[in-house]
Amino acid sequence: MNKPFNQHWTKQHASDLYGVDDWGAGYFGISDKGLLTVSSNNTASTRDVPLLQIMQDVKERGLDAPVLLRFEDLLEQQICRLNDAFNAAIAASGYKGEYRGVFPIKVNQQCHVIEEIAEVGARYGHGLEAGSKAELIIALAHIESKEANIVCNGYKDQEFIDLGLQARKIGYSCFFVLETPTELPIILERSRALGIKPLIGVRVKLASVVGGHWNATSGDRSIFGLSIAQLVDVVDQLKTEGMLDCLQLLHYHLGSQIPNIRDIRNGVVEACQVYMDLVREGAAMGFLDLGGGLAVDYDGSKTNYIHSKNYTLDEYCADIVDVVISTLDPENITHPTIITESGRATIAYSSVLVFNVLDVASYTPGSLPSAIPETEHQLIHNLKETLEHISVKNLQECYNDGLFYRDEVRELFKRGQINLRSRSLAENLFLVILERIIEVAEDAPRAPKEIRKLREHLSDIYYCNFSLFQSLPDVWAIDQIFPIVPIHRLDEAPTREAIIADITCDCDGRIDRFTSINNPKTSLPLHPLIEGQEYYIGVFLVGAYQETLGDLHNLFGDTNVASVRFNEDGSYEFADEIEGDSIADVLSYVEYNPQNLREKFRKIAERAVKQGRISASERQTIMKAFSASMQGYTYYEKE
Fold first, then answer.
1. How many Å apart are CA 455 and CA 260, to the nearest integer?
2. Pairing of β 67-70 and β 102-104
3. Which residues pair with residue 615 across a beta bridge?
4. Which of 195, 228, 431, 545 lies 20 to 30 Å (CA to CA) from residue 294?
5. What percent of the chain has pLDDT over 90?
6. How far apart are CA 565 and CA 316, in angstroms?
7. Are 135 and 630 in contact (CB under 8 A)?
8. Residues facing residue 99 across a β-bridge
9. How far apart are the C-alpha atoms of 225 and 28, rounded to whole Å?
10. d(CA 18, CA 490)
11. Are 72-350 and 378-454 in the same CATH fold?
């Protein structure tokens, strides 16, 4: 549907319409020429670079749309912002502990991303969180700062534990976080066998429940972590083994995107109570890991809506530090090192998916005859009369009448009482009625809600050159909303309302929910295509999870495959057997060279020999464990 604008269109109108200033976090803006820009900041200057220019440069290098643009600068700035905000809160409050963040590798395992995080994070002692053996190998090959932590979550088999213990011997601060009570005996047995004391953490299920998309990880029914009773049993087992001094970290995780700061504070309060009692039990402690939860404001509303957040980064950090101080100080408990596993907020801004529009299906009516032939059915004449009597006062009535007459014509067509041309005329008349109602509704002071929604119901379909399932799986799987904006022509008023369809020929391959300050919209204002010119659309804040979630979440690769065939007598046979991916396989899928990883780790191990941490023969054993893990299956292996 055409959308009228009664005012001169400016870039501010475009920014308001698409919310760029609200969700862009200072990284994205609109130029005077109507181009969407990304801000490249460094110590020398700040430059706003048009995404259209970048796309043109990409095309000159032989890469066509769709293209995922990664901005390393934005990733660096987010790491710095997070650490600087916590350090400022610590300094302002007189907190006696430190902040040491870790990035969860599962959020984006791509090689260049992890290399950037490790390099920038080294300035702050910012570590990595590993939830699988493959991710632990990545962490060991990239963390060199002795101040940085490696936090091992997820279910851990003997091979996983052996590798972590060997890393501990080299000098890594590598924590095994217990997800279930059954992990502790394995850790204790391998610790005795290798003669290496582990660093142990416990993940506790808090009673606190949060709002948001991922709140299933909070509360008593969370599938991860230990109940309070199980936590007490772990403490007792460690006491019996004389290894309570190994318990140094308390971990909890309430959700990936927590929109309400009150929920965050409540979680910290409860966790601090658990932490204090572990100290009283005699555990060494020293680290409080708050997990993830730092939200991204996808819609820019700055509210506690599930796609937003009602707090700033500074408020988030200050509130956490304040709660820990106010809870622990009255009991004279030493302030712990605070760890957060902020993945989404760290990486989301740094990636933008850009694709071009291939075609448009429009619901624009065809031409109407100057007069309706007398021979046409009375229902078609009724539609023409409805069109002629539309006014501000009868919008709802005319809409109801038009809908009734149109539907009656369709029923007659099904019974063979109206032919194809007559039905076509009726359909076109009805579309013209809707266009006229929408036009008149612009002047109606209080148009009915059903009328206000008509523009969205008649939206065009823009067919775009991308796969929703490959590039934006969260849109399909969990109705995640991302900011979507044309990256050029923003100095023109968009006159079409549209939904977006991908090229997968799958009925689910569509986007029909879009960001808005108030409520998600079911259509997106776009510009009409110009023949011979590309029209580019950008999807923003897609750095978290979207690149590998569908295929390689947590770097778990393809499983082993057994093809079963049934025989006529009811028996069956294995027609084919295919081995699943090794860790080396899946690492290569995300741009790692397994041999380069081995060489990086060999140099780190050799450095440990020179430092006297291990002997040359021990280095050989550790390298064998590393190489064996590379060839291992990505899933849990029983001995």
1. 33
2. unpaired
3. none
4. 228
5. 65
6. 57
7. no
8. 338
9. 39
10. 10
11. no
Report the candidate in 45, 42, 100, 103 with the shortest Cα–Cα distance to residue 71: 42
SS3 of residue 56 by DSSP: helix
pLDDT band at residue 73 under the 50/70/90 scheme = confident
Domain limits, the chain: 72-350, 378-454, 552-582
Q: Tell me the sheet residues that pair with 562.
A: 577
C-alpha closest to that of 215 among 310, 291, 288: 291
Q: Between these two residues, 189 and 209, which has the higher pLDDT value?
A: 189
Q: Could you tell me the strand order of the sheet in which 28-30 lies?
A: 28-30, 36-41, 46-50
Q: What residues contact 494, with CB distance under 8 A and at least 6 apart?
A: 3, 17, 486, 525, 526, 527
In which residue are the tokens 């601090």 written? 272
- Per the structure block, which two tokens stand in for 367? 């031409």
Coil, strand or helix at 203 = strand
φ/ψ of residue 103, rounded to 5: -95, 125
User: Quick one: which of 71, 65, 153 has its CA closest to 112?
Assistant: 71
CATH architecture for residues 378-454: Up-down Bundle (1.20)
133 Cβ neighbours under 8 A, 6+ residues apart: 157, 159, 160, 163, 583, 629, 632, 634
What count of other Cβ atoms lies within 10 Å of the Cβ of residue 414? 10
pLDDT tens-digit readout, 417-449: 999 999 999 999 999 999 899 888 887 777 777
Average pLDDT over residues 175-195: 95
Tokens standing for residue 128? 């990595």
For 72, the token pair is: 């390393």
DSSP per-residue codes, 349-406: GGEEEEEEEEEEE--------SS--TTS-HHHHHHHHHHHT--GGGHHHHHHHHHHHH
* Residue 306 backbone phi and psi in degrees, to 5: -60, -25
